[in-house]
Amino acid sequence: MIELAKIFHHVQRQLFPVLEEEIGTLSELDRQFCEVISLTDLGRFTRPYEWCGNGAPPHARVWLVHAFIAKSVYQFPTTTALVDALRSRPMLRRLCGWESVGEVPSEPTFSRAFAAFAVDGLPQQIHEHMVKVHAGPKLVGHISRDATAIEAPERPVAKPAPVEKAPRKRGRPKKGETRPPPPLKRLELQGPRSLEANLADLPSACDVGTKCNSKGYKTSWIGYKLHLDTIDGDLPVSAVLTSASVHDSQVAIPLAQMSAQRVTALYDLMDSAYDAPQIHAFSRQLGHVPIIDPHPRNGEARELAPAQAERFKERTSAERVNSLLKQRYGGRWVRVRGAAKVLCHLMFGLVALTATALFARLC
């Protein structure tokens, strides 16, 4: 946090006065964009994209990353709108790195660069580094886990035909008869496996998701589901994108594994969708205290203890982050197709959201 405070004071006392003297008065969004860029440490992540000496030198990828972050901060819904703004707004263009209109790349160049960033998971790397450096050294009180619907402009994949299961024999087995054990469920397999294996097992194709809204009515959408771990201060620390139909509980253990590599936490806060014995056990295995809203199974009403119910109120941070991502950082403006590109688009928004939340702690 000391390092973060140094960056904050450098930006406020030195960077902003110099920029305003050079290019004019900065708006609130201009200042926010500069704050986000100051925490990304892009040099270490864009070196693989530097010119290797073959062919014509490509456009500097670091400026393109700046532009994609600006797309989230300034709320440009499409790449076309971003390119038009860069060409018509000199201050934004110079903040991103280009001096003249002629230096701004064409829209196809932006698209090719974005595709490469999506394949490499560039914004995921930037976000992970930001969290580890600026939030990792501090003990975290609560991790709030939740998922949110992400609509996408693509056709859902066709579901495979159901496989007919062999009928199971009823009753007790005869003497000497052996029956194969029932296949293990995904939650039962996830605990002993690595994070990489668990992530590879999760479906990520576009399909149809259904959930109950706050009024109890079922709503459906076509696209994906973004699963987030958020710590105190509305700071997202981990993110996983799956198909829209994947149940929230199927991603709890991979998210917990990912977050455990980045921060040290005390409590895991989850709603009733995550009320499963395997999730409880894995949280305790990490040394956390699981506080999960009880699911009313079989009509059995259960309640949290008063102290746990008080802590559970901190889980609203997850809902605030989901809302912020959609309202202010591009979560509602998904215009790309494919899980890799959708996650790349969302992660650029999460990078901006995370940097803003980190600086908000110091204000």
Average predicted local confidence, pLDDT: 91
Structural class: alpha/beta
What is the CATH topology classification name of the largest domain?
Nucleotidyltransferase, domain 5
Name of the CATH architecture of the largest domain: 2-Layer Sandwich
Count every beta strand, where a strand is a DSSP E run of 2 or more residues: 6
Q: Which percent band covers the strand fraction?
A: 5-15%
Cα-atom Rg, whole angstroms?
A: 23 Å
Unreliable residue runs: none
In helices, the fraction of residues equals 40-55%
Number of helices: 15
Give an overview of the whole structure:
The protein has helices at residues 2-23, 28-38, 43-46, 61-73, 79-88, 90-96, 107-120, 122-134, 186-190, 195-201, 252-260, 277-285, 306-312, 316-328, 339-360, and strands at residues 139-151, 207-212, 218-231, 235-243, 264-270, 289-292. The chain is α/β, with parallel strands linked by helices. The protein folds into 2 domains: 2-120, no CATH class; 139-157 and 191-335, 2-Layer Sandwich (Nucleotidyltransferase, domain 5). Strands 1, 2, 3, 4, 5 and 6 form a 6-stranded mixed sheet that branches. The chain starts with a helix and ends with a helix. The model has no long low-confidence stretch (mean pLDDT 91).
The gist of it:
The protein has 363 residues and is of the alpha/beta class. The chain is 46% helix and 15% strand.
Secondary structure blueprint with pairings:
Layout: H1 2-23, H2 28-38, H3 43-46, H4 61-73, H5 79-88, H6 90-96, H7 107-120, H8 122-134, E1 139-151, H9 186-190, H10 195-201, E2 207-212, E3 218-231, E4 235-243, H11 252-260, E5 264-270, H12 277-285, E6 289-292, H13 306-312, H14 316-328, H15 339-360
Helix pairs in contact: 1-2, 2-4, 2-15, 4-15, 5-6, 7-15, 8-15, 14-15
